[in-house]
Structure formats: C-alpha cells, structure tokens
Amino acid sequence: MPKVIYELPDGTSATVDVPVGTSVMDAAVNENLPGIDAECGGSCSCGTCHVHIDEAWYSVLGEPSDEERELLEFTAEYCERSRLSCQLVVTGECDGLRLTVPTREG
C-alpha cells in the first residue's frame, strides 16, 4: 500500500498508508489529520482540501483540471504546486508522495 507523507500546519508530519484508488483527501479525513477540512466532501467545489505537492511529485500527479485550477486561484497560500487533495487519487506510483498542508487563516 502506498505511503503518503503529510507535512501538517503545526510543523509535524504524518505518514499514512493509503489504498490505491483512494483520494489524498479521503485518506487525511479518515486519519483525522488537521488542516484538510473537506467541507464539500470531495466534489471540487470548496477548496478546503488545498495542499502543496512536493516539487518532485508534481509531474507524477498530472495537471489540474480547469475547474480545479480556477478554484485553487482563490485559496489562501496558493502557489504553482497547489492542488486540491480531493482530486489526487493514489496509484501504485504514489508510494512516498510528500505534500504540505498550508496554514489557513480564519
């Protein structure tokens, strides 16, 4: 099972075994990780599952859809490595995937 490493807003990290076919968001919610609120439940409509993908992994995950990209532009801490974790489905190639959950103001 692929391991995903979440760098959390408080500076700690969590390594989670994520079944292939599961979204990065669902894995975080199942583990009660802080910072990924997932208010829309994974429908790509709220931006509360925003993460920064480690540069080494960005190309493995592919480009965001136009819908995802438009929503990301309105998230706090937006950068060129921003993605919505609800749109990132884990494959066998994702073992060791590293991402950062940005601090959210509010």
UniProtKB/TrEMBL annotation:
UniProt xrefs under Pfam families: Fer2
Cofactor: [2Fe-2S] cluster
Domain of life: Bacteria
GO biological process: P450-containing electron transport chain
GO molecular function, one term: 2 iron, 2 sulfur cluster binding
Domain 2Fe-2S ferredoxin-type intervals: 2-105
InterPro entries: 2Fe-2S_ferredoxin-like_sf, 2Fe-2S_ferredoxin-type, Adrenodoxin-like, Beta-grasp_dom_sf
Record-level GO cellular component terms: cytosol
Alphabetical list of CDD domains matching this protein: fer2
Keywords for the protein's UniProt record, in alphabetical order: 2Fe-2S, Iron, Iron-sulfur, Metal-binding
Family statement: Belongs to the adrenodoxin/putidaredoxin family.
PANTHER family: FERREDOXIN-2, MITOCHONDRIAL (PTHR23426:SF65), FERREDOXIN/ADRENODOXIN (PTHR23426)
The protein's name in its UniProt record: Ferredoxin
Organism: Mycolicibacterium chitae
Gene: thcC
